Amino acid sequence: MSFLKKLFVGSLPWATTDEQLNDLFAPFGQVLSAKVLQDRETGRSRGFGFVEMADDAAADEAIAKLNGSDMDGRKIVVNEARPREDR
Length: 87
Prior knowledge:
two-stranded antiparallel sheet, 4-stranded antiparallel sheet, alpha+beta, Alpha-Beta Plaits, 87 residues
């Protein structure tokens, strides 16, 4: 039984929505959550987000196919999210 895998998605176009991020990953398997992070002050996109997928194999395939791919003229970065380090 595989468990959920959290992916980091960077270099997103500024106009990307949570829904678009979800739609980008949906062809690879079940997306549990897709969130584009926003600046607290301005509410504008910070250009990156996180996607949680239900299946390891699906997440690995999404990384393989989407990392370096083009999204609205920007080359996006997709890899496994690393735990946040203490500041």
